[in-house]
Every structure is written in structure tokens, then in C-alpha cells.
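Student: Send me a single protein entry containing the residue sequence and its fold in C-alpha cell form, directly below this note:

Tutor:
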Amino acid sequence: MALVYVLVAIAAGAFLPLQAGVNTRLAHFVGGPIRASLISFIVGALLLAVIVAIAYRGSGQRAADAPWWAWVGGALGTVYVTAAIVVAPRMGVGPFFGVLVAAQLVATVVIDKFGWLGYAEREITPLRALGVAMLVGGALLVRLA
């Protein structure tokens, strides 16, 4: 089962630059990045609505029971999608995603350290810190090259 998770993570990671490129092209046809972001989210929401309708019929879980901060995921996604449309073409897709992945790793290490959002606490070991530093360094090299 762990292999399936790794494969899904690889696919999701590979889809991010594809999504940025697709949405950037869409922005040319719809009059800008904000409109392209909106269309991207509408299409995604429609697909998810179909999946939820099929997969979660009769689910007794209540969205109203979620904490307030659990509702901001869509807003965070909007920042990502719009930044990818606006910044990636100007910075270059490689440097943009290098910086993006480095920032993700820094954020995840901090989230793990403090156990935020319900994650288990994990210490920042010297090897983890070295891995973060190497990825940040790699992102800088890709950006500066």
C-alpha cells in the first residue's frame, strides 16, 4: 500500500507544473489569470461534486463540526493556482517550482516541529535540516542559473 501512496504523490507532483502551464494558456484565452483561476476551480469543484455524490452517499459526517481553520484550504489553493499562472511564466517553470518545493519543505518541517493542524510532532533532526538546506540551495541554483 505504501507504494501506491508514493505513486500517487509522484503523479500529484508531476501534475502541478502541468496545471500551471494549462492554466497559463487558459489565461490567454479568457482574459487573465484571475479568470483562469476561477475556471480552474469551477471545473475542479464540478468534478469533485460528482465524485462526492458517488463516493459519499449517506455519509453521516458533518462539515459544520470542522474547526474554522479547516475552511481556508480553498483560499490557500487559490493563492497557489493564481501564483502559478502569474509567476511561473515570468520566472520560468523550473525556478518557480524549485522555490515552491523548497518553501513547501520548509513549511512542512515547521508544521511537523510544532504538530500544527493535527499532525504528529516531529523533531528537526540534523539530517532533516540538512535535507531542507540542500533543497533550498538547489532551488537557489536553479533560480540563479
